[in-house]
Task: inverse folding
């Protein structure tokens, strides 16, 4: 997957497969597959400097994150501490803030406070 076109095709294919999974399985059974797919995406090097790849990657990750991945905050915290691919980690933080479970539960201010402070630790 060296070219932008190959990465765009790959991300489009995975997004289509994910859409099929969402249409077939209940929401309660999608958390584990979402976590596996996201973990797999994070092991690959995507050219996020390309707008098309970045948009496809962001949409797919946002869709996966919106399902609710219990270990995602821990993964992001670990990635932030190790300075692993800072651009990817930054994009994930943005996606989690916009689409994650904390975005919809404003009454849980303690969790929101911990979430906001985590990248600064």
Result:
């Amino acid at each position: 997957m060296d070219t932008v076109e190959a990465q765009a095709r790959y991300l489009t294919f995975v997004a289509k497969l994910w859409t099929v999974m969402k249409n077939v399985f209940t929401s309660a059974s999608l958390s584990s597959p979402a976590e596996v797919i996201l973990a797999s995406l994070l092991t690959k090097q995507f050219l996020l400097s390309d707008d098309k790849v970045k948009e496809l990657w962001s949409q797919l990750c946002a869709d996966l994150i919106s399902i609710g991945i219990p270990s995602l905050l821990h993964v992001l915290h670990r990635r932030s501490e190790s300075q692993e691919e800072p651009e990817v980690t930054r994009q994930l933080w943005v996606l989690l803030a916009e689409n994650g479970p904390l975005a919809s539960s404003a009454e849980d201010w303690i969790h929101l406070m911990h979430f906001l402070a985590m990248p600064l630790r």
